[in-house]
Amino acid sequence: xxxxxxxxxxxxxxxxxxxxxxxxxxxxxxxxxxxxxxxxxxxxxxxxxxxxxxxxxxxxxxxxxxxxxxxxxxxxxxxxxxxxxxxxxxxxxxxxxxxxxxxxxxxxxxxxxxxxxxxxxxxxxxxxxxxxxxxxxxxxxxxxxxxxxxxxxxxxxxxxxxxxxxxxxxxxxxxxxxxxxxxxxxxxxxxxxxxxxxxxxxxxxxxxxxxxxxxxxxxxxxxxxxxxxxxxxxxxxxxxxxxxxxxxxxxxxxxxxxxxxxxxxxxxxxxxxxxxxxxxxxxxxxxxxxxxxxxxxxxxxxxxxxxxxxxxxxxxxxxxxxxxxxxxxxxxxxxxxxxxxxxxxxxxxxxxxxxxxxxxxxxxxxxxxxxxxxxxxxxxxxxxxxxxxxxxxxxxxxxxxxxxxxxxxxxxxxxxxxxxxxxxxxxxxxxxxxxxxxxxxxxxxxxxxxxxxxxxxxxxxxxxxxxxxxxxxxxxxxxxxxxxxxxxxxxxxxxxxxxxxxxxxxxxxxxxxxxxxxxxxxxxxxxxxxxxxxxxxxxxxxxxxxxxxxxxxxxxxxxxxxxxxxxxxxxxxxxxxxxxxxxxxxxxxxxxxxxxxxxxxxxxxxxxxxxxxxxxxxxxxxxxxxxxxxxxxxxxxxxxxxxxxxxxxxxxxxxxxxxxxxxxxxxxxxxxxxxxxxxxxxxxxxxxxxxxxxxxxxxxxxxxxxxxxxxxxxxxxxxxxxxxxxxxxxxxxxxxxxxxxxxxxx
Length: 746
Ligand code: NOJ
Description:
This protein is an alpha/beta fold. Among the domains are: 56-116, no CATH class; 382-588, Rossmann fold; 636-745, Sandwich (Immunoglobulin-like). Helices cover 31% and strands 19% of the residues. It contains 22 helices and 26 strands. Strands 1, 2, 3, 4, 5 and 11 form a six-stranded mixed beta sheet that branches. A six-stranded mixed beta sheet has the order 12-17-16-15-13-14, with helices on both faces. It has a four-stranded antiparallel beta sheet with strand order 21-20-25-26, with no helix packed on it. 1-deoxynojirimycin is lined by residues 117, 161, 214, 293-294, 502.
């Protein structure tokens, strides 16, 4: 250490020891040791403006056929101390190589963070997030992120760009596949479970990943469901429906937040000081760092809010955005902005401190190679236990949409099963969007899974019939001939995995291509037909659902898709998934969601003669399949709803009977309607659920306790509290099928 550095070190140590931490009590994961604090302040006092701008810069690694590669200029930036983090670089050897450049070749030896889109698994790929949400199983969701974190950290990573917690009511938007669906209350629970899963209770452990709540804010509400498009909504809607899941991540201790691409009311998030500083930090107490989305500072020029990249860099930094993903705007312009006194050293230091703190929270100063452990890389990835859990999770994520005449499960007497359809033997499509380091070659296709399930008891034959998304019907005849040979048909239909996800929006969300026609042709053979659907968004299934077929929604199940689905088809697992996003009848109904408002002229289904009500001339107001909906191989009947109000709580009890002939799980859902509010309230709002296993023939009492505070909502002054008065409580099997009772809360 030079003399100056020593002096700095002592001064800083003194300051830190003498000045007590003003920070509020935070979860363990956020506590920094005194030596970390000293280290950070010492570094700050030693860094050049270029090195500071470097810490605020995140660069992309690419892959070519022989493995991961970083552009030569990025390699130089690492050596020059001008890169704070790298994304899309993993495997122990590669991460170690890059980290070594940072901690051995750069002047200040500051370790890099390594980020990646670990969205639904790293090597073992789990069902896509919307599918996971349909399991209504918070423990399983948390566990899947725990496994993802174990695998990702075993390959050098320490930061994930997840969870995506954007609420969306528009299935045209391709990124609904990455979220939890349309409901804010459920979205918050899932958001917190994901953060807990990634981060565990100690970010310094070598198998926990720093989470990044995204895309802050309201990225899920682009106009017309088109990705990156403008978002514009009332402040009450923003507070009530869109912001809470990000807040849930912050409360769960998420270490970072990603700014969204979109604008809200004319200000792009990346330049939105109110959002990034006033709300996120001052009101919510977030003490981590904010990263941009991919080059979103540069995009401020396209948005028409910045003159050039320099102006954009200034606006983003001033707003409270700490790290520039891939745009180089901080690196290229910050020193200049500092010279011109457009930004103060304190503003830059604040952002750099947050990045260095994140590195300290991850334990990188202690050991920069903490996540580079060859033996973990060999032993902790795609283990039998991890794959077993993935298979289980697939079966939990399936939603049975239709099952006329108990077509499913496949009867034991079936001798020949024909699997027909473009997704019948696809491994590639099973991964879904954002499949991290998942490899499609390791996926179990539907055909693989059903064949294993059938063993030597049944013959399984296969024909494609048509492609996913074109108009070629030349394969229909062969498919019909094959169906005629079988005594049971599984039709594997849906989207390709590239039809949802980022930049994958659709205006027609039916089953693509000629697949409905293929289904019609197969149904004409008179064989029992079970449709297995693969897709990344709710589809408009009106035509398919009008056919006498069973429909099992399986989304994209990941590595173990085929085995998990086969477990449901065979009846080994009784499906219990419930939709977390409404399936409309057609695109014209969008946005369609269960928690809409009553309006001044609500439609009375019993009075169809009344014309001047809120309705369509050509379509019902109701969805095809509502939020919370999903069938079982058994039946549940609800009775005996009892509600009681005491001084602070509403207690609700109901009897749920399994009246069918097999054991089954049911997601018992609690909804509330506030009859008269200071602002209009939705016709129903989810306030609780319980997933219970009920044995055949048995009845289970299910009860809920609802504190009055859970009735609170945002008022015009943007304060959250509840209004006394009458509430209707609904308990049932979906948002549309419930028992109800009325209560008064004073
Ligand atoms: C853009 C996406 O919007 C974001 O979700 C993702 O994390 C980044 N690219 C990095 O891949």
